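Technical note accompanying the year-one report. For the benefit of new consortium partners, we illustrate the data format agreed upon in the data management plan: each record pairs a sequence with a structure-token string. No post-processing was applied to the example shown here.
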Amino acid sequence: MSEQPNIAQKGPFAVEVEAGKTYAWCACGRSTNQPYCDGSHKETSFNPVIHKPEKSGTIHFCGCKHTANPPFCDGTHSRL
């Protein structure tokens, strides 16, 4: 069985993003700076997912870390 991420929250993180800026989404669920990576994955098999939006606005980063479409929420949290 592969390593499972920690569930940071059972719902998405709605965040305002800026076009062209780089965001590092936490994939392991251990970061204390959710939904962003703070390096807590170092002792895991996880790596952050880099997202560079083409336009500014609100996006929904996955909070449960089990999405099939990282780094975005796909509703998986409703089945956990």
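Partners are asked to follow this layout when depositing records. Residues 5 and 53 are 24 Å apart (CA to CA).
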